[in-house]
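Worked example 2:
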Amino acid sequence: MDIILFILITAFCFGAIVGSFLNVVILRLPSEGESVVFPASHCTSCMADLHWYENIPVLSFLLLRGQCSHCKSKISFQYPVVELTMAILSAALVQRFGLTPTTAGYFLFCAALLVIIWIDVRHQIIPDVISLPGIIIGLLFSVICPVLYWKDSLLGILAGGGILYAIAWFYFLWRKIDGMGGGDIKLLAMIGAFLGWQALPFVILASSLSGTVVGLFAMIKQKKGGQTRIPFGPFLSIAALAYLFFQEKIFLLYEIYLNAAIPG
């Protein structure tokens, strides 16, 4: 087998295993007092402990046909989706950055974003225990990362947190209600720490556009008008992942747009 293919397959499998643990974090972290380590994995319906062969990422879900082998209750599609997503992200990082400290740092970043996406969708919260340490880790990571300058990381933290804080403040002055949670502000600061301030225009624009489209559909479906609330963290996170893997193409689109907008 080609060594590169072997490395990518290994990275894929490792990502799937980590994704299995992330499912535990997503399930237990929002619950106060619960440990992400103990007790061992179990069915959330009948509480029966799972055997090792029921914990194989993705495969166990397929072999069990999406049902608990003990009580036959349905297993959420979240489990294979998170495992498969983390597996793909892991292989993509190795493909892009190789077996380097850069890959390790961005692996943690992707794992954090994946957990944030699912927790925010389910509970509309972004845990400080992820975003606040993430800001510090992102800044420290920039010191050893060859594709991220530490000054860009620091500016990303200040600008990321500051921009959303200013938007939230002006929205509150205008509508007298909170339009954005503090978790979104800390999340964008973490994104700025890992990607640098250069990522923020794209992340804010892409997340705002996608969030607006989804928000309009939610308003129609829920029939709550301006009272409709949707979590913004997933849109920020997905935009950050898009920038991480496609920033060259994004900057190319910037250049094409500017050349078209400013005739030479």
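The chain has nine helices and no strands. Residues 218 and 228 are 7 Å apart (CA to CA).
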